[in-house]
Amino acid sequence: MKTVKFLNYVFVVALGFFAVMYGIDRFGNNHPQPQFEETLYTEEFCKDIVGFNDIIPLEINMIDGRIASIEILDNAETPRFLEKVTDDNLVEKFYGLTPKEAVDLEIDAVNGATFSSNAIIKSVKTRMEIYDAEMNPSPWTWQLIGIICCAVILCVLSFFKKK
């Protein structure tokens, strides 16, 4: 009986260990990203980021994990401010960057359109931060799953032990 109990605990520890190792291997190493296209929107995530008049919703197109294009959607900004932003090629400065690179990019606001350009920069960076977190969950997630699996199995084993 003691041998069976010991083997059950060894099994639980091994299961937890492999869950942790899988998590580290899967998310801790840089595996190549799958090739895909995806469209992201900022409006839902950047409701508190305001330009001169209101929020500036953006459509961010991602290809293979990099920013391919950014489109400024319908908004309440003064057209001459947004014209200055587009003339300065502000959004193009993000093209080709990964989400992490976009968040870390040091970029200045456009003179004469400071509120609008700051809102666009902050919206892109905020959305990329959220996107990066969604695409690259922490390896600690898998470690937590391993611990929970161990705890559940130990509870089940202790339940059967009482009978």
Describe this structure in words.
- With 163 residues, this protein is mainly alpha-helical.
- It is built from five helices and three strands; from the N terminus they run H-E-E-E-H-H-H-H.
- A three-stranded antiparallel beta sheet has the order 1-2-3, covered by helices on one side.
- Helix 1 runs antiparallel to helix 5.
- The protein is elongated, with a radius of gyration of 24 Å.
- The chain starts with a helix and ends with a helix.
Protein traits:
163 residues, 5 helices, three-stranded antiparallel sheet, elongated, 54% helix
Low-confidence stretches: none
Largest sheet: 3 strands, antiparallel
Provide the succession of SSEs.
HEEEHHHH
Oligomerization status of the protein chains: single chain
Secondary structure layout:
Elements: H1 2-28, E1 37-41, E2 58-63, E3 66-72, H2 79-87, H3 99-104, H4 114-135, H5 139-162
Antiparallel strand pairs: 1-2, 2-3
Helix pairs in contact: 1-5
